[in-house]
Design a protein that fits this description.
Aminopeptidase; 450 residues; 7 strands; Butyryl-CoA Dehydrogenase, subunit A, domain 3; 3 domains; two-stranded antiparallel ribbon; five-stranded mixed sheet
């Protein structure tokens, strides 16, 4: 209610400001980036609240009228012309050198801030400004596409969004069948791990007694979940996804549930990429579940391994022999997993390779290859188990030869595991996973001796 009142108030101020400005540009006609830059300069130089709010709204409206080339020109101008004021920076440096105290240090800090940061703050005052700036950053990421010429602008936007989407502003809400339909539609649309086929499929994931779904919301995007997690309550740690999603499965009686399984975590806002909510989400959901169900004693994921097959096919450091390479060709055969002999041969090869992938393989920059692994290990989880043929879907077979993994969140060890990974790059793993890595060495030695 209060949020709706505030939004209406901003809209009223904006419309009154438009009347004062008497600007009549049609936002849905094709716009020119140079005109938009002039309007941004005017927004930075203005002081009036009503006119400033109206001008911010008009900048955002006219931005929508830019095509891809116009948006790139707009972003390039923000990088080129809206950096720090060089004269102010030079004067602040001179003052600080003459008297390096806190006062002059603060002056230097504020003088060195790019003007585009203040511009973004003023754009945020417009009605729906936060939501549209998130969408604008999504446009920016698409236009960057790995290039670095717009990186300075991206850093500034991330810096501000990181503050505005601080954990303290986020609200955890449970998603169930009584949640408004417009939010449920977004759960279906943004599910990124295991596709939700229809409304019945969604209901099977959020309505039964042994299923939960939670999402983080922000006051400025009240009806848009930022990230959500789907949870299955089970008796034991699962090793495959199909039984959890089966249409005809029997729900687990809640009094028998001892394990909470996080089997899907999905972000919904591309413009918030790089601003992590996932670790806070998992930890708060664990707290919620423990309050509701004190008998739960195991918190674990059932996670995909999206980078495994690409590494297996393309990396130069895959520890395999020529005979292994020949065996791996079976992975290109349809339904290879229905042949008992092929399954046994590939399992003896792929499980140790998966252990190597997690414990030894790294990118050129020394990072773990797998993004899901980086996320959970960085949050303090332990690599608990490698699940052979855990995902027989087309996507699972294509990305990981069906392999899934369990990451265990043992509450007493989370901080210790996080520090080991963050400071030293140590992958905390169970003895079962480590034994698989040793098995790889024995297998290669046997191949060389035979």
């Amino acid at each position: 209610m209060a949020n709706a009142f505030f939004t209406d108030l901003l809209s009223t101020i904006s419309e009154r400001g438009r009347t004062l400005l008497r600007r009549g540009g049609a936002p849905d006609t094709k716009q020119d980036a140079s005109e938009l830059i002039e309007l941004c300069e005017a927004l930075l130089s203005g002081r009036g609240e009503a006119s400033g709010t109206a001008m911010a709204r008009e900048v955002l409206d006219r931005y929508h009228g830019l095509d891809a080339a116009g948006r790139r020109s707009f972003f390039e101008a923000l990088v080129r012309d809206f950096g720090p004021d060089r004269e102010k920076v030079a004067k602040a440096i001179e003052n600080w050198r003459a008297n390096p105290g806190d006062g002059n240090g603060g002056q230097l800090h504020f003088a060195s801030e790019p003007r585009r940061q203040e511009l973004i703050r003023r754009l945020n005052r417009a009605p729906r400004g936060t939501s549209e700036l998130v969408a604008m950053r999504a446009d920016l990421l698409a236009l960057m596409n790995g290039a670095h010429d717009l990186a300075a602008l991206d850093r500034d936007i991330v810096h501000l969004l990181g503050s505005w989407f601080n954990r303290g502003f986020l609200v955890l809400r449970r998603i169930d069948w009584s949640t408004p339909a417009n939010i449920l539609e977004q759960i279906i649309r943004y599910e990124a791990v295991h596709e939700i086929s229809d409304w019945n499929d969604l209901r099977r994931r959020i309505d039964p007694v042994d299923r939960r779904c939670y999402a983080f919301f922000h006051p400025a995007l009240a009806d848009e979940p930022l990230i959500f997690v789907e949870v299955a309550l089970t008796e034991t740690m699962p090793s495959a996804i199909a039984p959890l999603l089966a249409v005809d499965r029997q729900p687990v009686a809640i009094e028998r549930a001892r394990t909470a399984v996080f089997y899907s975590i999905s972000n919904t806002q591309r413009g918030l990429g790089g601003i992590s909510f996932g670790s806070f989400l998992i930890k708060q959901v664990v707290e919620e579940l423990r309050r509701e169900l004190p008998k739960l004693d195991t918190f674990v994921t059932l996670s995909p391994v999206p980078g495994f097959m690409q590494w297996l096919k393309q990396a130069n450091d895959v520890p395999v022999t020529d005979d292994d390479r020949a065996l791996l060709q079976h992975l290109d055969e349809p339904n290879w997993f229905e042949n008992t002999e092929t399954i046994a041969q590939l399992r003896s090869l792929l499980e140790p390779l998966a252990a190597h992938y997690f414990l030894k393989a790294r990118t050129a920059k020394g990072r773990l290859i797998d993004s899901v692994a980086r996320f959970h290990l960085g949050n303090g989880a332990r690599l608990e188990r490698i699940d052979w043929l855990g995902d027989l879907s087309a996507k699972g077979m294509r990305e990981s030869a069906g392999i899934m993994v369990n990451y265990l969140y043992r509450l007493d060890d989370i901080e210790k595991n996080h520090e080991a990974y963050a400071n030293d790059g140590v992958v905390v793993a169970s003895s079962a996973v480590k034994k698989l890595l040793k098995g790889e060495g024995r297998r290669l030695l046997d191949m060389r001796l035979s």
